[in-house]
Amino acid sequence: AQYIKNRRLDLCARALQNAHDDEKLAGIGYRWGFSDHSHFSTAFKQRFGVSPGEYRKRCR
């Protein structure tokens, strides 16, 4: 189960690198199976050490 979650988070990270600025973070999480934005944000921060929004900013 953890492998699948990490794989989904990796796909979210890739999507954040390529996302348009107007694409909502929750939409990216939802696309990869996270139905709750707070759960997505918490899981992303645990895996990558930064929030999805901060990750997106750093990738610009």
From TrEMBL:
UniProt keyword Transcription, yes or no: yes
Keywords (A to Z) from UniProt: DNA-binding, Transcription, Transcription regulation
Domain HTH araC/xylS-type, residue spans: 1-58
Single GO molecular function: DNA-binding transcription factor activity
SUPFAM superfamilies in the record: Homeodomain-like
The keyword Transcription regulation belongs to this UniProt entry's keyword annotation: yes
Coiled coil ranges: none
Protein name as annotated: Transcriptional regulator FeaR
